[in-house]
Write a structure and sequence with these properties.
Keywords: Cytoplasm, Elongation factor, GTP-binding, Nucleotide-binding, Protein biosynthesis. The protein contains 20 helices and 35 strands. With 636 residues, the chain is of the alpha+beta class.
Length: 636
């Protein structure tokens, strides 16, 4: 079954409520004041049975100028409008304003109902029809069906029902697969039940027991019970008029204009980029940063309008891109419709579509206008690509909110577009960004290897920190991990290197370094200070630390204290000899007899064995760790 909402619009006292009752047998004027004054003040709702394949809610909206807020709230989510015109009065000021608002809200289907036919003759009937056709010329209603009815005597009702069925047949029902969103237009309490909210479901669906968010207050609530036109249901979906009994919140915490949403899928905003279409005639210029009243969903919020290509809006019937900066947060998404009115003197300025629900501050320039126009026509794929161009990677949840798409729809987009890549961290990037980062890392590694050829590589944490100013850290870490798997990066402990890199002395100092090592090797265990060897070979002071780092980290030399380092061949030979000359435990005296070292060298040498894990000191002796010794000798 498809679910539809039909809105009824028109001038005050043109018979909308009577027509609603004639079609549905429901009196939508509920309030005592509405009964006494015979005018609709609040929105009225009624179930409208057409056939077994259509579930329809009919909304009777107030026609008086002072109740324009309720009117806009009522028609904001409708699929079809019924424009009501009384035969004895014809087109009136509110009729024209309602047509303007409907047009601006993007309503694209409607029928016209001429009521009170019992009050006019055929000649007046013909004049009224001409009057209406002239008023709707150039609007979405221009080709609409027109019906003449007498609601009190049930004349013409069958024709109206058939006309509605014709208009709705084949019309796609609202998509209920998105994240649930219900702009609230009524709040009340029921004794023994608690707080109840009503509204037309814009997107998605809701089930009993669902935990939802009340925005902008950010209050978590639970959908305890759901009704559709006073009938209990287990769920409600897009296009339906629903009442939800919400737990966890009081009536005093909710107001019309708040929104009930699926948890985690929507954000509030106060800065909105929009495409604004103005009405045909604006009575007074709209100044830069002028005060406005914005109707979006069921919310009515004051704010100011910001232009980027002019200092005032004078001409009517024009489309411009601009920004709305609101005094209070609202819930909206790209593509949502809105109306802008001047607070005083009161008049409708225009309306249009949301381009970006989370606008930024921009310069007053042609460049900003160009950017907004490009954003206005961009496809979801192009917008996602632009987001990634700016941020390098964006969380799936953030992309869903910004693009006003469900996470499932974003995932489908990623599957259909090979340029996008979803990381294990649930962040989206593009192959272009990945390739760019990969090339940057390779270039940096090449530079580093050239500048520091004697090092194993650059510390991974250091590179992550360097590139985190441009790329998200999780993206950098993922590229490193993938690089290790693919083999274009080699991980050496905490270091990263290119696969063809091997630590080596700089070519211009290679012979002197080899001569230095040869001198150290000849000295055996009782070596001269390492700095003396460096100076003897006339190696530049600037590379001393690099050479020492290379010697020690490549185990070319074994450092026994701050001054002295022993060539690995000499060191290994001494370890083997000492092990062969001693038992499992040995004393300082036994070590001296084996190595023939003075105390100056012997004590640091033995302490080095402890540090390497080859021996363990036990009071005045040391104990060999034979397994570790065997493994160390094998590896070396």
């Amino acid at each position: 079954m498809n679910h539809y909402t039909i809105g009824m619009a028109g001038h005050i006292d043109h018979g909308k409520t009577t027509l609603t009752k004639a079609l549905t047998n429901v009196d939508t004027d509920r309030l005592k004041e509405e009964k006494e004054r015979s005018i609709s003040i609040e929105l009225g709702y009624a179930p409208f049975k057409i056939n077994d394949e259509m579930e329809v809610s009919l909304i009777d909206v107030p026609g008086h100028e002072r109740f324009i807020r309720q009117m806009i709230a009522g028609v904001a989510g409708i699929d079809l409008v019924m424009l009501v015109v009384a035969a004895d009065e014809g087109v009136m000021p509110q009729t024209k304003e309602h047509i303007d608002i409907l047009q601006l809200l993007g309503i694209d289907k409607g029928i016209i109902i001429v009521t009170k036919m019992d009050r006019v003759d055929d000649e007046i009937k013909e004049i009224v029809e001409l009057d209406i056709r002239e008023a709707i010329e150039g609007t979405f209603l221009e080709q609409s069906q027109l019906f003449f009815v007498d609601s009190l005597h049930q004349i013409g009702m069958d024709d109206v029902k058939k006309g509605i069925e014709t208009e709705l047949s084949g019309r796609q029902g609202r998509d209920a697969t998105g994240a649930f969103r219900l702009p609230i237009d009524q709040v009340f309490t029921i004794h023994g039940q608690g707080t109840v909210v009503r509204g037309t479901v814009y997107e998605g669906s809701v089930k009993e027991g669902d935990v939802l968010d009340l925005l902008p207050q950010r209050i978590p609530v639970r959908a305890r019970q759901i009704q559709v036109h006073h009938q209990a249901r287990e769920s409600g979906r897009a296009g339906q008029r629903v009442a939800i009994n919400v737990g966890g919140v009081s009536k005093n915490d909710i107001t019309r204009g708040n929104t009930l949403v699926a948890t985690g899928h929507y954000e509030t905003t106060q800065t909105i980029d929009v495409a604004l279409t103005t009405v045909e005639k604006i009575s007074f210029p709209v100044k830069q940063r002028g005060a406005i009243k914005v109707h979006i969903g069921t919310a009515e919020v004051y704010g100011k309008i910001v232009f980027f290509d002019r200092n005032e809006l004078v001409e009517g019937n024009e489309q411009i891109v601009c920004q709305l900066r609101l005094d209070e947060p609202v819930v909206t998404r790209r593509g949502d419709r809105f109306i802008v009115r001047r607070p005083t003197p009161t008049e409708t300025i225009g309306g249009g579509k949301v381009i970006d629900a989370h606008g930024d501050k921009y310069k007053f320039s042609d460049e900003t206008i160009r950017m907004l126009k490009e954003k206005m026509v961009a496809s979801p794929s192009e917008r996602l690509k632009q987001l990634i161009l700016e941020q390098k990677a964006i969380a799936l949840s953030d992309a869903s909110k910004t693009l006003t798409m469900t996470t499932d729809d974003v995932l489908k987009l990623l599957e259909s577009e090979q340029q996008f890549h979803l990381l294990p961290s649930k962040e989206i990037t593009t192959e272009k960004v990945i390739l760019s980062l990969k090339e940057a890392i390779q270039v940096e590694l090449e530079r580093y290897h050239h500048n520091f050829p004697m090092r194993e590589g650059i510390k991974k944490a250091e590179m992550v920190q360097t590139y985190s100013y441009t790329y998200p850290k999780r993206l950098i870490e993922w590229v490193f991990d993938e690089g290790s798997k693919e083999g274009w990066i080699i991980a050496v402990g905490p270091f990263a290197a290119l696969p063809n890199h091997r630590p080596h002395p700089p070519e211009q100092w290679k012979k002197r370094i080899e001569q230095l090592l040869l001198s150290l090797k000849k000295e055996g265990l009782q070596v001269s200070a390492l700095n003396e060897h460096l100076q003897a070979q006339q190696l530049p002071q600037a590379i001393h630390e690099e050479v020492i780092y290379y010697f020690h980290h490549q185990h070319v030399l074994y450092q026994i204290d701050e001054k002295y380092s022993i060539h690995r061949d000499s060191f290994q030979h001494a370890v083997k000899k000492l092990r062969n000359d001693t038992n499992s435990n040995f004393s300082l005296k036994k070590a001296k007899e084996s190595t023939n070292l003075s105390r100056k060298y012997l004590v640091p040498f033995l302490e080095k064995l402890d540090k390497l894990g080859l021996t363990v000191r036990q009071e005045q002796e040391r104990k060999w760790r034979d397994t570790e010794v065997e493994q160390w000798l094998t590896n070396k």
